[in-house]
Amino acid sequence: MKILVLGAGAIGAYYGARLLQAGASVSFLVRSARARQLRAHGLRVHSELGDFSGAVDVVEAGDALPEADVVLLACKTYDLPEAMRSIAPAVGARTAILPFLNGMQTYDLLDAAFGKASVLGGVAYIAVALQPDGSTRHLGAADRVVLGARTPQLQLLADDLYGLLARSPGLRAVDAHIAQQLWTKWVMLCSGAAVTCLFRGTIAQILATAHGRGFVETALAECLQVASAEGFALAPDAVAQIKGLLLNPASAWKASMARDIDAGMARLEADGIVGDMLVRAARHGVPAPTLQAAHVHLQVYLQQAAAA
Ligand SMILES: NC(=O)C1=CN([C@@H]2O[C@H](COP(=O)(O)OP(=O)(O)OC[C@H]3O[C@@H](n4cnc5c(N)ncnc54)[C@H](OP(=O)(O)O)[C@@H]3O)[C@@H](O)[C@H]2O)C=CC1
Ligand SMILES: CC(C)(CO)C(=O)C(=O)O
User: Fold this and answer.
1) CA distance linking residue 5 with residue 73, whole number of Å
2) Which residue intervals define the domain Ketopantoate reductase C-terminal in the entry (predicted)?
3) Does residue 256 line the site of ligand 2, with CB under 6 A?
4) Which residue CA neighbors atom 1 of ligand 2 most closely?
5) For residue 66, what pLDDT band results from cuts at 50, 70 and 90?
6) What is the Cα Rg of the chain in Å?
7) CA dihedral of residues 291, 292, 298, 299 (deg, nearest 10)
8) Residue of the nearest CA to atom 10 in ligand 2?
9) Ligand 2, atom 3: nearest CA belongs to which residue?
10) pLDDT-based confidence at 224, cuts 50/70/90?
11) Which ligand has the nearest atom to the CA of 196?
12) CA 67, CA 62: separation in Å to the nearest integer?
């Protein structure tokens, strides 16, 4: 299977490496600074589930791109418009795009540009981070991918891709109700990102405060109401799983956006992860004061980062 991975950051490098190890023909479509780094040092991934180190095929926007079977999208939500322009030459009539980006806005944009019949659904439950030396580090050992066809036309390809990914370590699944999976992850991530970014701490630190638990519960309740209003009410077992993560007083977890704040990043997925949930809340008249507070906090952080 010919796979083009857009972006060789944390997610792109990790899953690109896993797909190479599984036997796929993988090229990385990257911007020029990353291209130079990859050509000089190769792709390096450090993980408890197995390392990868080696030369990889690197292409840049504007190069002649052969048509891919699958384009794995692994940029941040704020880079999606440029990324869509860059992948367009590699997207043919039989190409499927698999986004691992968080949030549902991605799907609205991709469907509008390429058609829903070209866009698979995918969620990655993993914590990976790009290191200052250009390598990618897997934090912990959790790695679960769920993918699925959002239209019947992509079912065979989804099954083939699952078969390939299943040769890599980690939990892999193909799900007939992938839209529900996308919403479930977004609810978990949006509520978790809202509180871990707003309070700049881990779940354990937040829950150890006088009012922390109430804020986590409220953020989750707001996201759950939006998901229901959008027609994707979460099943009780899915809600229980999310509570198991977000209300675990021993959890050292924080969202990747909170890790981006810790790293002093000047850009954040504030709008893609929290802002878009608020757009949908407003559309349905769902009150969401905790998410609003988190979004204000993120926007002030971004103003300060831009001014620094
Ligand atoms: N990190 C994690 O643990 C998880 C992240 N996610 C989600 O996955 C997505 C990707 O996150 P993550 O990998 O952490 O982000 P990173 O910032 O580590 O990587 C994104 C990469 O995309 C590249 N990129 C952006 N635009 C383009 C473009 N037009 N052409 C080529 N390359 C481009 C960037 O390259 P450049 O260096 O040129 O800027 C960067 O290397 C996000 O939506 C995130 O929420 C999901 C699950 C877990
Ligand atoms: C899977 C999860 C929740 C891992 O932390 C994530 O997607 C993120 O933090 O962005």
Assistant:
1) 6
2) 178-298
3) yes
4) 125
5) confident
6) 19
7) 160
8) 256
9) 189
10) very high
11) 2
12) 14
71-97 pLDDT, tens digit each: 999 999 999 999 999 999 999 999 999
Hey, how many other C-beta atoms are within 10 angstroms of the C-beta on 108? 11
Q: What is the pLDDT of residues 234-251, one digit of tens each?
A: 999 999 999 999 999 999
Name the segment(s) of the chain with CATH classification 3.40.50.720: 2-176
Domain 181-307 is in which class? mainly alpha
Q: Give the residue range(s) of CATH 1.10.1040.10 domains in the chain.
A: 181-307
Q: Which helix (H) or strand (E) holds 143?
A: strand 136-148
All residues at 6 or more sequence positions from 66 whose CB lies less than 8 Å from its CB, including other chains: 2, 90
pLDDT band at residue 19 using 50, 70 and 90 as cut-offs: very high
Q: Which fold has domain 2-176?
A: Rossmann fold (3.40.50)
Measured CA to CA, the distance from residue 146 to residue 174 in angstroms comes to 6
Name 121's Cβ contacts closer than 8 Å, sequence gap at least 6.
107, 147, 148, 149, 150, 178, 179, 181, 182
Cα dihedral 96, 98, 104, 110 sign:
negative
